Amino acid sequence: MLPASRATIPPQQRGEPWFEDGNVIVLTEDAASDVTVAFKVHRGVLARHSEVFQSMFELPSPMAEDVEVAEGCQVVRMYDRPTELSALIRALYDGVSFQYESIQDFFHIAGILRLATKYFIAHLRRQAIRHLLETWPHTLDGHDRFIERALRSSPVGDLSYPYVHPVHVLNLARETHVSIIIPSAIYILSLYPLPDIIRGDHPKLNVEHPSRPSNQLSACDLQDYTLVYQHRIDLVMDFIRKYCCEREPAKGCVGQPGLCQKAFFRLGSRLSRSWVVRTGPLTYMVQVIDELAKDPNVCTMCRRTFKKDVLALREKIWAELPGIIGLPSWKELEEMDMS
């Protein structure tokens, strides 16, 4: 039951924060769990961060007969998840410090991003997006750090880094209109087999939490997944053929005549037999550079030129990634979501 007009809020319904000197009570009821939680806060603190809050608090005097009052304060009813509203209010008072050490951290970020977007709290929205970009990056260097951390991080609660499933990331991005994290999330999702995604039985999808986004892949994201999945395979095959099998010696090659070219062909033949469907081309190319560096049959000049060409190819692939799914450039996405 919600408290009646001019009632007292039971202790078990008092959420955090609850300031005894507060002058407005924000009361929310989670329809899914039928839980009612109240927060006693300061009208001015919330209003200064959000025009939406400011409009909500423009109410008649608490002495008016038609105003709901509890604990001597006006009551403003909201319909957000109590855990998310609590996190948002605490962030407005104390600032926010995001982490990414477990899937619970992602859900915390998701809740704040969701309500910061809903209530037009620009600085909190930017902070949440900026933190998400540390894991779901918009730069190639960020992608490389993502892969490095995924390879060296120990599982947390039986979930491997990045702990959250890309489907959850995509659905959060769609819900909050954050486009800049979509390309990298789709790229990582393209490493998952489609039957696994459709079954929806991955452990990361089955973690229960009030702030968990939808488990279902939308028709739009299914299309983007398919485009990037095919694009990724084409990239691997083209790289093996053009950059390895068909590669000519570098200008200034100092190896024995024909030796470097034969080594490249052998490398390409070996790669064409060993690559798998789940190969990520950006990481794969770095691994091939390292593999070639150990081949004594390739001269220093050919190795150096190969590395330069492949690194330039990786930059090109990354720059073109948003366009594969019909999004504008990384720079434009950053201006859209971070300004």
TrEMBL record:
* Extent of the signal sequence: none
Q: What domain of life does the native source organism fall in?
A: Eukaryota
* PROSITE patterns from the UniProt entry: BTB
Which Pfam families does UniProt cross-reference here? BTB
Q: Which InterPro entries match?
A: BTB/POZ_dom, SKP1/BTB/POZ_sf
BTB domain residues are 22-95
Gene3D superfamilies recorded: Potassium Channel Kv1.1, Chain A
Protein name as it appears in the record: BTB domain-containing protein
Q: Which organism is it from?
A: Lentinus brumalis
